[in-house]
Structures are given as structure tokens and as C-alpha cells.
Amino acid sequence: MNPALKNLSQLLCASAAIIVSAAALNFVVDPLQLFRPARLFAAGYSLDNRMQDAGLIQSQHYDTVFMGTSLAIHYRQSDIDRILGVKSVKLSMTGSNSVEQSFVIAAALEHHPKRVIWQMDDWIFRDAPDIDADVYIPADLYRRNAKGIAEYLFSGSMAKESLWILARSIPPLQQITARLTTGVLFKFPIPNVDDINVLRPDFDVAGFYNAKKAVAAFRRIIDPVRNSYLAEGYDYDAMVRHFERDAVVLIEKNPDVKFDIYFTPYSILQFVAMRDASPVTLKIVYDFSAYASKRLAQFPNVRLFDFRVAKEVTHDLNNYGDVIHHSPAIDLKVLSWLAAGDYVVSRDAPTAPTELLKAQIEAYRTEGLER
């Protein structure tokens, strides 16, 4: 054989062997737990919600799906289970839109949970790419089709994760690998599913969530240089269209699933900022809230909660790190409200909370806010 052809053949064979070995390693270790829950090797979980959720849907046992944005990202799964008496899987995704959320919930519903708890706000229904055009979510992993499985198994970066998980499972190496396993070097640094995207025990809650920060954020977003941000994504017709496609259709297709949907308790300053700097946007919020509330009231398998009117929380600015993100203490309060049925929207008067919110916003005065 020609030496050049022989060398090429050896190179191709070696390359093929490496690729096949990587695929075999990924299949056996299965970092995402896409094929089976972790048993032989130590489980690891990722901070990348959009990737990790594909594995959680397959590997966890649950009767309840918990979905939301960054406003629902720090909830502990064990708190959800304890307070609501369920077995949940937390699938919240930072910055997610209704296209992503609906797609992920639909994938989880294939496992026949009884309940979906869905943190909603008007912002998620903004214009967004179709799921297959969304570069941030590995849609084929959720579908578990040939393309998704092949990309997973033949991924070199996933093979690196598999090797590291394998090393973490060898007792003599556990202490060394534990110190080196971080979200910077490796994608699966979290050993416990309950710790996914929760705040660290040493996190300075009071230093991050306080009135000073909330007021500073308020003044920043009403600044004429920046206040155009308030209107971004607020197109009433588009929001209604996405709400019908991503929420209503999903609810209609799953009449045996109980949907507990809640409007998240933004601080009052979010809406006051719109009142003072972008009143057109605030009108869209009112109109969309009324539309969504009336529409959801038509479904017997839906309970809608409107926590935006929970004045004891939304007017206490010490609960917030900016004008929308609330502290972990409010996470627990939201769960207690859901458990008790507080702030549930009446089917006979679905727009009443929106009218109450409107009155609170109109009455709120900012003259006394600390600088």
C-alpha cells in the first residue's frame, strides 16, 4: 500500500476510534441523565437552564412542573414540594420567553404530570424566534430525535464532562475533583438537584435586596436617556398572538392537567416607572392583563393568581434588588399564597385585580423615595 494512503487510513481509523470512544463514554456516563438517572456515577447538574432542563425532564420523578423566568429561578425544589405537597421539577429559565417556556412545558407534559405552576408576566409574550431558530435552547435534545442524540453523544465538550464526572466518582480523586469542579471549567458543577440556581448560603441577601437598590434602579430606568427600555417588547397585538399560541393552545391540549398560573409580584416601582416615563406601555400592560385574565377564566383547569396587587410585598421596597426581582423570602411567600389560594382571580370578575393594581399605581407617590 502507498505509504501516504496507509498513513491516511491509520489517521482515519484512529479518528473514528476516538469519536466512537467519546460517544460510548457519553452514553455510559450520560452527564445530562438524558437516558437514565445517575446511578453508577455521581450526578452533576448545570447552571445552563436551557440545556439542563432536557435532562431533568427525563431523569426526575415528578407530578408537578414549575416554570418561570429569572423571577422563579431561585426557588428551591424542596420548598416547592414541602409547601405545596407535590413532587416537582423546577424548569425555570433565566430570560426565557413564552416560546421557550411552552416548548419545555410540552416536553415535560409527555411524562404526564398532574399540575403546572407557571410564573407569567407580560414581558414573556414579546416577539421571539421560533424554537428551532433559537440558538440558546437545544430543541432536538428535548425531542430526543436522531439529530439531538447524535449531537449529544458525539460532542467532544460533553466527553470532557463525562471524563470529569467519571473522575469525581472515583473515591481517591473525589476531594481533588471537588475543588476543581466549577461552573467556569466544567458545565456540571452542582451535585444536588435541589441546589440548581439557588442562592449560595453565604449570599448577602440584605446587601442585595433593599430599598436603596430598588430606588436606584427606578431612577435609572426613568432617566430620559434610558427610559425607552420600558417599552421594549410591548406590542399588544404580538403579545396577544403569542399568549394564544404559547399558553392557551397548551392549556387546551391538556384539559386533564391543572394549571396554576400567577402574575409575579413586581415592585410597585416597575409600574410607576411606566406611569411616569412610558404611559403608553402601561396602557398595554393594563389591556393585556385584562385580556389574559378574561381568557384564562374560561378554562376550568386553570387557576389564575395575581400577586401584583399584594401591597404588603410590592410596596415594601426592601424586598427587591431592582424594580422586579424579589428576595428569597418572597419566594416562600408566593408558595404559601399558592398553597392557601390567596389572591386567586375570580372567574366572575377576572379584571378586578387589574383595576385594583391600576388604583394602586395611580395613588403611589414617589416624592418621599430616598435617593
Please provide a brief summary of the model.
The protein has 16 helices and 5 strands. The protein has helices at residues 3-29, 49-59, 77-84, 98-109, 139-143, 146-153, 156-168, 174-180, 205-208, 211-222, 236-253, 268-277, 279-296, 311-314, 328-340, 352-363, and strands at residues 64-67, 88-90, 115-120, 258-263, 302-306.
Q: Tell me what portion of residues adopts beta-strand conformation.
A: 5-15%
* Tally of alpha and pi helices: 16
Topology as a string of helices (H) and strands (E): HHEHEHEHHHHHHHEHHEHHH
Nearest-integer average pLDDT: 90
Protein described:
The protein contains 16 helices and five strands. By secondary structure, the chain is of the alpha/beta class. The chain has two domains: 1-198, no CATH class; 205-371, no CATH class. A five-stranded parallel β-sheet has the order 2-1-3-4-5, sandwiched between helices. Helix 1 crosses helix 7 (156-168) and helix 12 crosses helix 13.
Strand and helix map with partners:
Layout: H1 3-29, H2 49-59, E1 64-67, H3 77-84, E2 88-90, H4 98-109, E3 115-120, H5 139-143, H6 146-153, H7 156-168, H8 174-180, H9 205-208, H10 211-222, H11 236-253, E4 258-263, H12 268-277, H13 279-296, E5 302-306, H14 311-314, H15 328-340, H16 352-363
Parallel strand pairs: 1-2, 1-3, 3-4, 4-5
Helix pairs in contact: 1-7, 3-15, 4-11, 10-12, 11-13, 12-13
